[in-house]
Amino acid sequence: MAALVLVIFFAMTVSVVDGIVGYPKSDQPGEFIPGTTALIWRWDRRRGWYWYPTMPISSNLNETKVSGKWYQIMSKEMPPFSNDSFLDDFVLNIQKKAGGGLSIDMQGRRRRGDNQRCLKTGRLHLVPTQMNGRYTMDIGPANDILENHFTTAFDKSEVNEYIIADTDYAHFLVTKYCLGKRKDGTCSKLEGVAISSRNPVLEAVHLYNAMQVVAKVLCRSLVGFLNHEQSNVSVVDGIVGYPKSDQPGEFIPGTTALIWRWDRRRGWYWYPTMPISSNLNETKVSGKWYQIMSKEMPPFSNDSFLDDFVLNIQKKAGGGVSIDMQGRRKRGDNQKCLETGRLHLVPTQMNGRYTMDIGPADDILENHFTTAFDKSEVNEYIIADTDYAHFLVTKYCLGKRKDGTCSKLEGVAISSRNPALEAIHLYNAMQVVAKVLCRSLVGFLNHEQSNGMDIT
């Protein structure tokens, strides 16, 4: 029931390099993945296929190919930037220097105050080191505004490091800088990690790969990243980034499972409250959903994992909802569309939580679950969060124990109203998985959607 689960699935609707997300196309568990050589696939009998971090692609960085314009999509500073220093429409222009190394011209627009004026925040000079992809950072004598942007004095007597951790050159770029690097690798003044894109919007599959690099190669938490809004892109106000109203406890439109809180040490950060499903509107959630990503524990076999996986949710007259599911096997007779059965969700006292039933004739649904469906056990289905128009996060549990664990099977899935899910909505769905359902983002597999369209 990979499709059932709120798992993070990237629709093949987007143009995807073979093997970047999902099962490796070649079945070679140790093969490097094109465009993301920081992560390789490994096979484990218990875990199935999973990402395994190796050295970053920056060890083979091509400075000519990485040059050009990049839109900064998300970033995280430790300690956090103030509102006055945080910039939207933030753009990097990377150029290879004739004498070696790179220069980076940066500009952006203040989030507060004079927010119509585009500010040139200065030029970074990256001096190459013996390790390809790692640079010593210099800002030059006249870049006072760059110091203001960094919110700290730039001391050339210290080690100031800039790392291009990974890039596929065509879609995403992951960078990290450290002002005042100590011998133990920590930063005495400021550390920053950023995800940038060749376009103002980063497709979900490439955002996910960039996040994997942040978590597994740079070993940094995904919590606390803020969105740099790009004004020529249609983005829902306030879904990611600082809250528009300055009220730290205000609910964010479309993602009421998470609210903003202020902490003097951490700055603004997401704080989980009760999921939106406590106010779930079963009529609005009804309709067609494309399952983008999912994760089962224990993992599904190749024969049970489905692409083109679609859910059709309908509100039932007597209460509760039904979910019709269909998909196409990843292996074998993969041209045939399979009706995997119908789930009947019986409402409980907690809105958004259901008891799950499959009916007497749904043998194929049992086969999809890879385990016998025992009606004498507690089989739970949760609609954890949705904004109704873009993303849906679900979780199911077969054989729920009193301690909340699942004796047979657990699945988490992320679904989308369209075959491709925009990065900003995927990110919000991931936050729900991590912070509301408290499940790791590692191990999600992509359900390819063969009729997908690129998100622009």
From TrEMBL:
Query: InterPro entries, per this entry?
Result: Calycin, Retinol-bd/Purpurin
- Classify the source by domain of life: Eukaryota
Annotated signal sequence is 1-19
Enumerate the SUPFAM superfamilies for this protein.
Answer: Lipocalins
The GO terms this record gives for MF are: retinoid binding; retinol transmembrane transporter activity
Classification via Gene3D superfamilies = 2.40.128.20
**Which key words are in the record?**
Signal
- The molecule here is called Uncharacterized protein LOC106154058
Recorded source organism is Lingula anatina (Brachiopod)
